[in-house]
Amino acid sequence: MTTSRPGRPRLPTLEDVARSAGVSRATVSRVVNGTRNVDPEIQKVVQEAVAQTGYVPNRAARTLVTRRTDSVALVFSVPEHPADDPFMARVFSDAFFGRIVGGLLTVLRPRGVHPVLMLADSDAVRQELVDNLRQQHMDGVVLVSIAPDDPLPALLSEAGLPAVLFGRPTGPVPISFVDIAQRTGVDLAVEHLVSLGRTAIATIAGPHDSPAGRDRLAGFRDAMAGHGQADAPSVAGDFTQEGGEAAMRTLLSQHPDTDGVFVANDLMAQGALLALNELGRRVPEDIAVVGFDDSSAATASRPLLTTVRQPVEDMAAEMARLLLALIDDPSQQIRSVIFKTTLVRRRSA
Amino acid sequence: MTTSRPGRPRLPTLEDVARSAGVSRATVSRVVNGTRNVDPEIQKVVQEAVAQTGYVPNRAARTLVTRRTDSVALVFSVPEHPADDPFMARVFSDAFFGRIVGGLLTVLRPRGVHPVLMLADSDAVRQELVDNLRQQHMDGVVLVSIAPDDPLPALLSEAGLPAVLFGRPTGPVPISFVDIAQRTGVDLAVEHLVSLGRTAIATIAGPHDSPAGRDRLAGFRDAMAGHGQADAPSVAGDFTQEGGEAAMRTLLSQHPDTDGVFVANDLMAQGALLALNELGRRVPEDIAVVGFDDSSAATASRPLLTTVRQPVEDMAAEMARLLLALIDDPSQQIRSVIFKTTLVRRRSA
DNA sequence: CCACGACGGGAGAGCGCTCTCCCGTCCCGT
DNA sequence: ACGGGACGGGAGAGCGCTCTCCCGTCGTGG
Asked: Does residue B150 fall inside a structural domain?
């Protein structure tokens, strides 16, 4: 156990600044934190002393008494997976992650709060995470879960820890979250296909164990029922590009006359486009394709993908706001905020 | 300023556990941290008391005395950019980010160290970051910089803060880093094209203000010179897909006979492939394409991209190891570790 | 002219932990 | 049988900060 860092000299403390400024520790603290009124004259003296000594407040000491760490956990909860598997890469691939971080930072940074990155990929880790929070290492949690039936929301809720989810929880867990109006988003896609004159519309759905997958499929069914086609074809995919490719082939082999398809996410849509190209189907002439998410896959594919955009940055920013409010007052009611989606028209439909 | 969290009861402390176990605070600390020998009998009693009280050590208090936070900053340093610009999305897009995080975690997690995510997108933020470190909020820095002439490496180095870079610094800054043998990697690509019988080989280079861009172009020139073609054509791109697309068109308009091209990164290569497809050139029959990185773009493009793979996970893991060593002993010499690349043969060459 | 409140500043008690000292006990070797 | 060292445990200081409490000094109103 190292006692003290060799080579690194002792940093100036409040005490040092106080001595140098000829005031008490308390006064320096007041100036530094801007609490209460301090004589402008003294304020100046203290500020000079701070600058001169190069004082920077020690976070741990402050945390110890305020019980605030000014950092929150940014947790990605994913299914258990072998170490060498590219799953994790997939999780973070796509701009999704960046958009989340970007949105969070617009709110967190001005408040001086830092996100601590955590990957919850096993139940052991999930438990450890809850311990970490109880340890007061972090004030709260922003949780993005893509694990089927993730126990984490319930764990957090039970522990009474401030937390906000991206997307509604799988079960009836009392916890704050942000989400999009999934069905309305799907409507956008379906109505667009219909307005294009497509009459044989099908869907490539997401996995049934994800809320988004389920909601989007249900939305699709409802929307199609509204057009008198309650039995529109659907093939389930797994939200990956390869899955989309395979699903497209399956779909066409079962329903070769399909002329419009709603794909539950862009990555699968990209795969579907690849498959269509190889099968010699022209997009959008022979078959129109609409994706969901407006991820980077949408602009990486050819033709450019028409898709339903979710305002991820705004959602992330709202998550941060909800979380900070919850941290300020943990007795606060849980809340959920639902965002609207928009249709981004490109070439594929 | 909130005094104490309402609703949340006081957590058990060492003192509580000690009382409950009938031993001293020091003994409980020893058991919890596994330092020194403690009578197995007492150990058991203490452990039971810990479990019974639900004790979890308070991180801040521990940090205050050990001066270790057990968290490191994971900094992405990027050029300044307008708030609404998708730049950030681009930064984090692609699996690159995930591979870095994955690699880091394999080393950090077993040691109980957490990465704190930071985005350094302006000089103000960079300065703030250095302050944060001096504040002891984090023990060290893992820096991934894609900002041209980034001042951060120098700042960190001057401040004597433990830091490790991904990729060598732009200037002659004394700082630890991991990198790949860029030239050897480029050799792999060029030799492959040559072995395929290509005789009119060109390159789409990266920006000149990035070390990787420069190194790869220099490597290309050298390799081609080795084949008696010191003046092989090159067009500069900006590492984006659109840039690659444009560069490919430029290249073909200037050198229509090109039958092999080395592209300095996969994203540009993906763009190049798109352009070639639109221009009616068959890949690899008419023109062979080799990329660099083996990013997700390599498998998202058609035909699948032959590329030079950098072992990002291994590099990230090594960064973590270097950093932890540096944190343990800051007086340690700076070190750099260079990794080998491998050629991943797919369809495009 | 005095009482009173507002205000600016200081003193000091901890926050919860680690770690150095120190002390008692036991097991050696001589 | 005795001295010395190894070992296990306790006492207590102190990490650097915030915040409550208290006290002195004003300005103000009766």
From this structure: yes
